[in-house]
Amino acid sequence: MSKNNIKTSGFSLAKRKDIVGDDYYEIKQFNDLTIAVLCDGVGSAEAGALAAKKVTQHILTNFQNIPKAWSIEKAIKTFITSINSILYAQSMQDYERPELVTTVTVAVIKGNRLYGANVGDSRIYLYRNKEIAQLSHDHNEEGMDNVLTDAIGIDKDVEIFYFENNIQKDDRVLLCSDGLYSVMSENMITSHLENGAYNLVKKASSLMEENLPDDTSAVVLEINDTDEIQKMKDLKLNIPEKLKKGDEIDGYKLTLSLIQNDRTWVCEKNSKEYVIKFAPYEALENEDILDLYTKEVWNAKRLKAGFFPKSVVPKNRTSRYYIMKKLDGITLKQYLKKRTLSVDDAITLTKTLLAMSQYLLKFNLVHGDIKPENIIVINRDEKRIFKVIDFGSITEVFSITNKAGTASYLAPERFKESAINEKTEIYSIGVTLYEALTKEFPYGEIEPFQNPNFKNIKLPQKYNKNIPDWLENIILRSTCADDELRYSNYSLMKFELDNPNKVPVFFNKNTPLLERNPLKVYKFGFYFLLILNFILIMRSV
């Protein structure tokens, strides 16, 4: 689930007049996961507070590097088991008895699903429709609430209570130490939960006249909206294995295959033409492929702007597909086989790509595969306009796991598994602009799996003398292999496109000084020769 759909809060107070307590919690949100861990270091142990911190950080650190093949359940249980073994062994080594001891509660939200586990008596509650339910299990001696039967670090083996639940809009997930529920009833927790973790803990403290008998901590995860991508993914829809001309699905008749894999077609319905794109057949068995396609559909549905083709997802569809408006044009790659773009059209293209990129950034997205094949050239009212296609490549900004992109348009740092960001997208825009004006690539065409050389850029004016100096400087800056010299953001590149008279001359770091500042070189030469002549005159006297 997107972190924009979940509001998080956490707060902790130490018991009585203590400055620091034994509780510890952290909340992390990355990729499509939200993870909260809360631990209550056992006060009777010498290193309970240290154990609480170690457990929390161990679980969160490992979740950032979770193997793709692992389920959330396997990850939670594996990470808890491993840190239990580590703390127990360390206790035996340092104290010869269990002293690194703590309870733990873990809550993970992915999609519209809550995954949770606990060891000890810290709790997890789910609040829904003004009712609260405890999801965790207290590991206490029967009739002796203050005696734990299990905790992290107390034994070489650990008993983990694990559970799962669906979550809905307006749900709240509460993680808390026993310091909270021992002074607040479930009814009282329910009445104050909507105000977040801080107000819960402060209310508990006020009930005890600001003299809490135990460390008290709470974490609240508030579900502001459900995950639309997950809802789309959970739909029971057919994926046709083979498609052929004449097939009819939900009234859309297939007329022309557009891509070799036969998953994208021109189709007709009610005498109008559309483009229909189906999910890969492999998505039936491969969850990663299904995830990627579902994100593509979600982006096609929600990204409404003039630089994209209009797209819809029919409500009553029986198969996994979405519909796009058929554009009356050709790809820029096809266009460049016959001619280059004029300077004016190239500027229009670049401004379109920058506007598209700035629009996506509002959603924390980047296109990921800007290139002439993904740009449609349309002639309208004796003007050329440009549309950007391929919703499938769109990904989260700063993603390091996404492999979107085409080799010749990838920034050099992308070959070193750098994150996708504004600078890498600007490089792709720059290469596209270069190709649109020259039919060439700044560093030559790059094949997949090739180890490219980005040392010597070919000046675009050598291929097209119509390119003005100011535009060449923009091209050189945007395609610079050194990302420190490249435009840092879309706005700066757009400003220079809009203000040609303010575009500075661009030089690479290895550009000779004579080219960068000939006047300075000539001045230095003049004074050097003047001093040399003076020395020679003095020697001859």
TrEMBL record:
CDD domains: PP2Cc (cd00143). One of its GO terms (biological process) is response to starvation. InterPro entries: Atg1-like (IPR045269), Kinase-like_dom_sf (IPR011009), PPM-type-like_dom_sf (IPR036457), PPM-type_phosphatase-like_dom (IPR001932), Prot_kinase_dom (IPR000719), Ser/Thr_kinase_AS (IPR008271). Residues 187-506 form the Protein kinase domain. Keywords: ATP-binding, Kinase, Nucleotide-binding, Transferase. Residues 8-223 form the PPM-type phosphatase domain. The keyword Transmembrane does not apply. It holds the Pfam family Pkinase. One of its GO terms (molecular function) is ATP binding. This is Protein kinase. The lineage of its organism: Bacteria, Pseudomonadati, Campylobacterota, Epsilonproteobacteria, Campylobacterales.
